[in-house]
Amino acid sequence: MALDDAPRSVSLATTRLHRPARVLDQLRARVPDDESRACAVPRLEQRVADLLGKPAAAMFPTGTMAQQVAMRIHAERRGIRTIAFHPQCHLEIHEHKGYEIVHGLHGLLVGDRYSLIQLADLEAVREPVAALLLELPQREIGGRLPEWEDLVAQIDWTREHDVASHMDGARLWEAQPYYRRSHAEIAALFDTVYVSLYKGLLGISGALLAGDVEFVEHARVWRDRLGGNPLSAWPMALAGERGLDDLLPRMTEFLLRARALAGILGGIPGVQVVPEPPQTPLFHVHLAADPDRVVDHAALLAEKTGIRLFRLVKRAAHPLSCSFEISVSEQFDDVSDVEIRDFVGELMLTAG
After folding, report:
1. Using an 8 Å Cβ cutoff, are 26 and 41 in contact?
2. pLDDT tens across 102-136, in order?
3. Could you say which of 164, 209, 260, 305 is the most buried, measured as most Cβ atoms within 10 Å of its Cβ?
C-alpha cells in the first residue's frame, strides 16, 4: 500500500507516527535561520510555566519520569514514603511499580476502581501521606472529571493534612474547556503539575513538570540522574509548541465534536458511550460484542473504508463485551461523524 493510500487513522496513538521525515522538516522550518535550536527547550519551559501560572517548569523525556520524580521529591520533603492515588492511576497500572522499585515509595490506592476519587475516600485515609496525585481527566474510566467544587474540596483536604497536591495533567489541555477556567486557575489548586506534549497536542513525546523554583531545580537534578537531560530534545519542544499554537485553541471545538459524535454513536444498538455526555474530547465506547471479533472485523473495515478508528480494544469482565477509546483532535478533520457512525454500525452488525 502506498503511503498516501494508507488508512485514515483517527487513533491518537497511530496518528503521531506518520511520515517522521516530513515532521522533522516541518519542525526545522519553524526555527528561523538566525535562531539557535538550543533555545527551543528553555523557551517552551518558560511558556508552559507562564501558561500554568507556576514559577518554573522543566522538560522531561516522558511523563513517567516526570511524575515519579515529583512523587519522590514530595516524599523527601515530608519524610513520608507513602503517596496516594486512584487505583487506575498511570503510576499503578502502566509503570511496573517504578515508584516503588526505583524510588522506594509506597502507593496507597484511594477510592473505587471504576469511579472518581471522592472527598469521603480521602477522609477515610488513616495513615500519613506525602502527596495526593489527581488525574485530570481520569483516562481509564472514560476521561471523567470531578466537578469544580468537588476538586476544590479535595485540595482543601490536602492542605488541612499537610499533603502535597500533584496534578497528572497529561490531558489538562482537554480538561480545561469543561471547567471554563484558565489553565493557570486550574493549576493554582496544585503544588505541582505535569503536562504532556503529545496527549492532546499530538507532539512527538515529552513532558513538562511545573512548580516552585526550588522544586523544579531539584527535579532537574533527578532528571539528569535518571538520564533524562533534554540536550537534544529540540524536535520534541518544537512539536509541543506547534500543538500549543495550533491545537490548544481548538480544544473547545474538539469537545463539542466529541459530544456530537457520542450522541450519534450512543444511538446504535449494543453501543454505550461513557461518560454521556463526554466531559472532554476523550471518551470510551462500550460494545456488546466479542472483542476478538471486533478486532478482526475492524481490520476488514479499515481496508474497506480507509478508516482506522482505534488502536486497542479493551476486554471487559463479561466475555462478550469490550470497549475502545476515542480522542477527538485534528485527525478527525478528514473524517465525518456519518462515516464513523457507519463504521461502528457495520462493526456491530458483523461482530456483535
Report:
1. no
2. 999 999 999 999 999 999 999 999 999 999 999 99
3. 209
